[in-house]
Write a structure and sequence with these properties.
Protein name: Histone deacetylase 11
GO cellular component, one term: histone deacetylase complex
Oligomer: single chain
CATH superfamily: Histone deacetylase domain
Strand order of the largest sheet: 4-3-5-10-9-6-7-8
Subunit structure: Interacts with HDAC6.
Family: Belongs to the histone deacetylase family.
CATH topology: Arginase, Chain A
CATH class: Alpha Beta
Radius of gyration: 20 Å
Largest sheet: 8 strands, parallel
Number of helices: 14
Order of helices and strands: EHEEHEHHHHEHEHEHEHEHEHHH
Organism: Alligator mississippiensis
Number of strands: 10
Distance between the termini: 25 Å
């Protein structure tokens, strides 16, 4: 179990992401070691960007992951349970843990082979978010509005921080971590994340942190050779958050396929979309998959990115109360296959986040899709390990600034 990796000394404290250090100490007995996929294999110094560019802050989200671990990022802290209040929103606030449980039942993964997500710190979040916006989240009524759970308005903010925002910060950290893993290994999946309605200074639609924007900005700032990204957003809703963030950034190409008649209907944000596919309510598999196939190929041929961020929302599922489309479970599995096939055929690293999905059965569908990708060898341990050992990939990430 990755025993070649040195354990870390961990300073006691409430926030693991803030307290983990890169100090390598003497060998500890196995019973005292943290799980392998929580250990840092090494920490390399950041690049000196010169006086004209500020040096990126030191973060615990970029670290070397043992090759024995799958590039699948998750933490039990993703799941939101708070006196039943999570049931007041149609979102299944425990779906992420259910996905992992299904994958474990199928013997694809085990706890010690999953990359443990770390909570994004305030300094991490400030890479994109304004301090003014982060301060707003210290007001419970703001969080109640963003998450669309009105009773949060009446709760002390320290409860809201711990029970609602910390899980979302941990998922955000997971997306940032998975961005580097995708470059290292060729692919990565954050079982959470995909908060595509949040921009640098505004949240909404259950999205409090702009994890997609953060993952891309971290890569641009810290990984040599990553200068272009393509967002393929296939959630049922328009991804207005990242669209607003990258409105005038020619390094980021956005393809968005969404139901034209539902939230958010953000006309200004649509100006950032390079390839816009607006669907009618009730769109079914045949039409949907044909459009996805055609436009994914077209988008990647036009953009030729260094990384793909794939927002794989399952709210396109037939019967979803918010998505308004009519895609079957098999259609969702095929959709993900199309995107990964296009990425693998071009040897472009791909990061997948799971985004929206408001039915209890979506967790099973996400797990089935990941299993299908594995069965087709579009993702597998051997592929991931070869990616980590590939000289070109290694050259890219050897310059990563921690």
């Amino acid at each position: 179990m990755c025993t070649h990796v040195h354990p870390l000394h961990i300073t006691p404290g409430v926030c693991l992401a803030k307290r983990l250090t890169a100090t390598v100490g003497p060998e500890l007995p196995p019973c005292c070691r943290p799980p392998a996929c929580q250990q840092l294999a090494s920490v390399t110094p950041g690049l000196d960007l010169g006086p004209s560019s500020p040096r990126p802050h030191r973060t615990e989200l970029y670290h070397d992951v043992p090759s024995a671990c799958w590039p699948i990022v998750y933490s039990p802290d993703y799941n939101i349970t708070f006196m039943g209040l999570e049931k007041l929103h149609p979102f299944d606030a425990g779906k992420w843990g259910k996905v992992i449980n299904f994958l474990k039942e199928e013997k694809l993964i085990a706890d010690d082979l999953i990359v443990q997500a770390r909570e994004a710190t305030e300094e991490d979040l400030l890479v994109v978010h304004t301090r003014r916006y982060l301060n707003k989240l210290k007001w419970s009524f703001v969080v109640a509005t963003i998450t669309e759970v009105p009773p949060l308005f009446f709760l002390p903010n320290f409860f809201v921080q711990r029970k609602v925002l910390k899980p979302l910060r941990t998922q955000t950290g997971g997306t940032i971590m998975a961005g580097k893993l995708a470059i290292d290994r060729g692919w990565a999946i954050n079982v959470g994340g995909g908060f595509h309605h949040c921009s640098s200074d505004k949240g909404g639609g259950f999205c409090a942190y702009a994890d997609i924007t953060l993952a891309i900005k971290f890569l641009f700032e810290r990984v040599e050779g990553v200068s272009k990204a393509t967002i393929i957003d296939l959630d049922a809703h328009q991804g207005n958050g990242h669209e607003r963030d990258f409105m005038d950034d020619q390094r980021v190409y956005i393809m968005d396929v969404y139901n034209r008649y539902i939230y958010p209907g953000d006309g200004f944000a649509k100006r950032a979309i390079k390839r816009k596919i607006e669907l009618d309510g009730g769109t079914e598999d045949t039409e949907y998959l044909q459009k996805v196939q055609t436009h994914v190929e077209g988008a990647l041929n036009e953009s030729r990115p260094d990384i793909i961020i794939y927002n794989a929302g399952t709210d396109i599922l037939d019967g979803d109360p918010l998505g308004g489309l009519a895609i079957s479970p098999q259609g969702i599995v095929k959709r993900d296959e199309i995107v990964f096939m296009a990425a693998r055929s071009r040897r472009i690293p791909i990061l997948m986040v799971t985004s929206g999905g408001y039915q209890k059965r979506t967790a099973r569908i996400i797990a089935d899709s990941i299993l299908n990708l594995h069965n087709l060898r579009l993702i597998n341990k051997e592929l991931a390990t070869r990616g980590a050992e590939n000289p070109k990939a290694a050259g890219r990430v050897s310059a990563a600034k921690k």
